[in-house]
Amino acid sequence: MSTVKSVIAILPKREKEEALQKLHEVEEKLQIAQAQTAKGLGYELDKWTWPPQIMLHAGDVEYGERFRCPACGRVLSPDDMPPLNDNWRTI
Fold first, then answer.
1. pTM of the predicted model as reported, rounded to 2 decimal places
2. Cα–Cα distance, 17 to 40 (Å, whole number)
3. How confident is the chain (91 residues) per 10-residue block, as mean pLDDT?
4. Residues 39, 45 contacting (CB under 8 angstroms)
5. Hey, which bits of 4-63 come out as E strands?
6. CA-CA distance, 81 to 61, in Å (whole number)?
7. How far is CA 4 from the centre of its chain?
8. Where are the domains of the chain?
């Protein structure tokens, strides 16, 4: 990406703006694809950021794992996560 950005920097103003917009769109699509892949592999995602960030392991607690978002710093404990099975009901 740094090579692409250095090439964009030398473009005329109009072409530079268009190229930066396209690059931003490509970067966002790449982040979404990474999040979809991570979710498919069972990783936790931060649902409060866009595109969703892949949560990092932030330590273990007595009854599970804690996760931290690298973008916003939010930490989730097992109490903040949905149940492990789909057979639960809300009141």
1. 0.64
2. 35
3. 79 88 92 92 87 89 87 84 54 43
4. yes
5. 45-46, 53-54, 56-61
6. 14
7. 22
8. 1-43, 44-91
